[in-house]
Amino acid sequence: MIPCINWLQPFLALISSILLTRGHNCPSSCLCPDHHTVDCTGKGLTRVPNSIPLNVRRLLLSNNWIPWIPEDFLVLYSDLVYLDLRNNSLSQLEPGTLSTSSRLVFLDLGSNNLTEISSGTFVESRSLIKLRVGNNPYLHMVGRDAFTGLTSLRELELQRNALSALDVVVLESLPSLRMLRLEGNPWLCNCHFAKLFVWLSENSHKLLKGKA
Ligand SMILES: *[C@@H]1O[C@H](CO)[C@@H](O)[C@H](O)[C@H]1NC(C)=O
Ligand SMILES: *[C@@H]1O[C@H](CO)[C@@H](O)[C@H](O)[C@H]1NC(C)=O
């Protein structure tokens, strides 16, 4: 046993030094102001850069042209706490993409091209506190169980989307919700809307009437 460990030691040292160096690499054209932050804001990126340090906690990717997030993204970057994808070209979230997102606290998907939020998208996102999905002009569908699992969520933005209806169950499944934005959607006034309206009246203190 012992000689074997002695023989392995240089290899282990080599592997950990490779991992450490990797951990301190910064993707070209991005900024890494500290060991846990990678800032690729507004760099004209058309995909997620592939040399992001594995221990990244804050990843800023806003104002790019990124059309999709690889399905295993949060498997690789399991320490991510803050992910800003605002103002990109995302048109859908692959089912399972967020299925290992238990540390994520902040997620901004605003100003993208999402069309729906499917049921089960956030089942593992139990740490998420702020979720921004406003200004997605084709977002017309939020699944009944879309937000199941978001037990810590305090702030939810769904303003300026294409929602004509929203099942009130979606909002009732958010026990920690404090702030909600829904303005600027083309609501259809039918009996489903009546239920939503009742919920909104009872929870009007949570509703934020923003300008933008
Ligand atoms: C969105 O990103 C594009 C590309 O970087 C940029 O030109 C545009 O100003 C951004 N829009 C906003 C509202 O920030
Ligand atoms: C956004 O999605 C719509 C409908 O799915 C599509 O017609 C449009 O080309 C997309 N726009 C961009 C910028 O990807």
From TrEMBL:
Q: Which UniProt keywords apply?
A: Cell membrane, Disulfide bond, Ion channel, Ion transport, Leucine-rich repeat, Membrane, Repeat, Signal, Transmembrane, Transmembrane helix, Transport
Tell me which residues make up the LRRNT domain.
25-58
One GO cellular component this record assigns the protein to is:
plasma membrane
| Localization annotation | Cell membrane
The UniProt entry lists membrane topology as:
Single-pass membrane protein
Tell whether Repeat is among the UniProt keywords.
Answer: yes
Task: Give the highest taxon in the source lineage.
Answer: Eukaryota
Asked if Transcription is a keyword of the record, the answer is: no
Q: Which InterPro entries match?
A: Leu-rich_rpt, Leu-rich_rpt_typical-subtyp, LRR_dom_sf, LRR_TM_domain-containing, LRRNT
Which GO terms are recorded in the biological process aspect for this UniProt protein? potassium ion transmembrane transport
* Signal peptide range in chain numbering: 1-23
Q: Which Gene3D superfamilies match?
A: Ribonuclease Inhibitor (3.80.10.10)
**Chief location category:** membrane
Q: Which SMART domains match?
A: LRR_TYP (SM00369), LRRNT (SM00013)
Against PANTHER family, the record matches this protein to:
ANTIGEN BSP, PUTATIVE-RELATED (PTHR24369), INSULIN LIKE GROWTH FACTOR BINDING PROTEIN ACID LABILE SUBUNIT (PTHR24369:SF213)
**Protein name, per record:** LRRNT domain-containing protein
Protein source organism: Pagothenia borchgrevinki (Bald rockcod)
